[in-house]
Amino acid sequence: MALSPEEQAKLKQSYERRSNFGGKHYSGNKKEKLSKKKKAEMAASGEKPVKKSKVQRKLGHMTSNERAELFNLKKQADDLFIANSRIGHKESNHHDGTEYSKGTKSDIATPGELRVAGVHSTDTWKTYRKRVDTFLKFAYENFGVKTLEELDNPTILGSFLESHISKNSSAKTIGSYMSGIKKLVEIGNSDRGFNVDMSGLLSDKSLYENRFLYKKEDYRRGKTIPAKEDESENKKQKPQNGYTLREAQIIAKHAGKLFSPREQALVEVFTYGAPRADEVLGIKWRQLDFGSNRVYLDDDNQNKNGRIRFIELPEKTMETLRDIWDSGIAGNNKETRIWGSKMNETDVRNIIKDACASGKVGYSALHDFRKANNEYIRREVKSGRLTREELADRTMAHVSIKDKNGNMPLNPIVNKVEIRYRKDEKGKSRPYKVIDNTVKEPLFTREKLLAMSDKMLIKAYMAQVLGHNRTSSVNPYDNG
Predict the structure, then answer these.
(1) Rounded Cα gap, residues 277 and 365, in angstroms
(2) Mean pLDDT of all residues in 334-341
(3) What gap in Å lies between CA 215 and CA 370, rounded to an integer?
(4) How many other CB atoms are found less than 10 A from the CB of residue 158?
(5) Using one digit for the tens of pLDDT, what is the confidence trace for 295-312?
(6) Structure-derived torsion over alpha carbons of residues 57, 63, 66, 70, reported in degrees to the nearest 10
(7) How far is the C-alpha of 434 from the C-alpha of 419, rounded, in Å?
């Protein structure tokens, strides 16, 4: 169905550099980069561009020499991360995309440890660098550390962790810092670029091992709607976490009203495809397959840990995207990013904030749309629109996607595993695994999937939708 004249007018407005939408949080006005001419005019008039102050960067208490020393320490870490980057960049920036190409996923770590060597995506890069920079600033201010070699001391880590414990930081926050610190030590001991031995920093495992772990009840994502009293049964209901499917649909509808079909489709992609924010912003027109209603996230650095994957969208959402393309308003270059050519993550959040306010829905994080996706898939199954056979076929399609070398890294050949059952002390039948080292087989097969219970088959499929192999990855979105 073609776009209406009103929708076309809004779409044109969305693609203008200065859309002037008038939203409280999102105007659609792209920040202008200062041209050389504008910079010269500002210099002549004595006007200075707005920059973050030392106070805003939390460096106002330092002398110029101290700031220089801290900058040099952070640069050492930056150089080390660049040397171990598996990120291939087409743009010319401070990352080197020619010497360090994306690696494979064959070097998977053991459970509870870092999953892959090096850094594979730009989003992961940013997270690690933020965590490490905070840690380096602490080490410099409290221990006078000026070089990475001086970090070879577990006392520094212990003091850093205690500082967060005293601030009541969550296990998730401290765990995130530990991931960044472990990655710094790991790449310091690698053989790419240059080596910096910081292994002593992690030598006292009692500081962090089996600490700062999630409890089962902590596995929830996003906002929590307090449990309400069920008057009919006089008992507590479960609290809800994240957006419900209905809330997500309301947000999408109001994004279309406030802005354009482009922004409405953006919210629908989050709702029905459950991608990460950086994945969405990287989507290009050529990645859309209107025949299969899939979006192939196949660009370098687009996905977490370099995992190849695709997302599935309803026909209605794909029709909207086709109408936008057919209108010609988006141009004719299929290498153009649909949303990322103009928006960043802050813009996306601001679009959601305005749509939430308009639809009277409580605002929450972008990742909370995964709860709505969970509900959407379960409704499709319950209604019979998605059968067991289709679940198995869709799961196999996800794990059978090939990389650039023609391999299927999501479905490796493994030792055969047989599930057997035995009774526990209460007489209840419990499954356990028997591994046969003499027989090799694919990790996933259609027969294995169809042999699963309904619950486990749904989780196996949903894990792939979320971009994971572990079915436990579904748990945070399965509550409420």
Answers:
(1) 10
(2) 96
(3) 21
(4) 15
(5) 999 888 788 777 889 999
(6) 10
(7) 6
Tokens of 53: 């102050």
DSSP-based three-state secondary structure for 414: strand
According to CATH, where is 1.10.443.10 located in the chain? 264-392
What is the C-alpha to C-alpha distance for residues 304 and 277, in angstroms, rounded to an integer? 11
Sort strands 294-297 and 309-312 into parallel, antiparallel or unpaired. Answer: antiparallel
Question: Is the Cα dihedral 66, 72, 78, 80 positive or negative?
Answer: negative
What DSSP element (H or E) covers 396?
helix 388-399
Task: Report the CATH architecture of 264-392.
Answer: Orthogonal Bundle (1.10)
Q: How far, in Å, CA of 75 to CA of 6, rounded? A: 51
Q: Please give the sequence-ordered ranges of beta strands (E in DSSP) within 282-354, or none if there are none.
A: 288-289, 294-297, 309-312
Cα separation, 63 vs 80, in Å, equals 26
Q: Which residues contact 185 (CB under 8 A, 6 or more apart)?
A: 198, 199, 201, 202
Which residue's entry shows tokens 């308009």? 358
**Which amino acid belongs to residue 120?**
H
Alpha-carbon gap, residue 151 to 69, rounded angstroms: 15
Query: Which pLDDT tens digit goes with each residue over 96-113?
Result: 333 323 333 333 333 334
CB-neighbour burial class of residue 219 (10 A; exposed 0-12, middle 13-18, buried 19+)? middle
Amino acid identity, position 190: S
Tell me the CA distances in angstroms from 103 to 88, 108, 183, 423, 476, one per residue in order: 10, 12, 16, 44, 29
| Cα–Cα distance, 253 to 249 (Å, whole number) | 6
Distance in angstroms (rounded) separating the CA atoms of residues 116 and 124: 12
* Token couple for 67: 């700031």
How far apart are the C-alpha atoms of 245 and 158, rounded to whole Å? 43
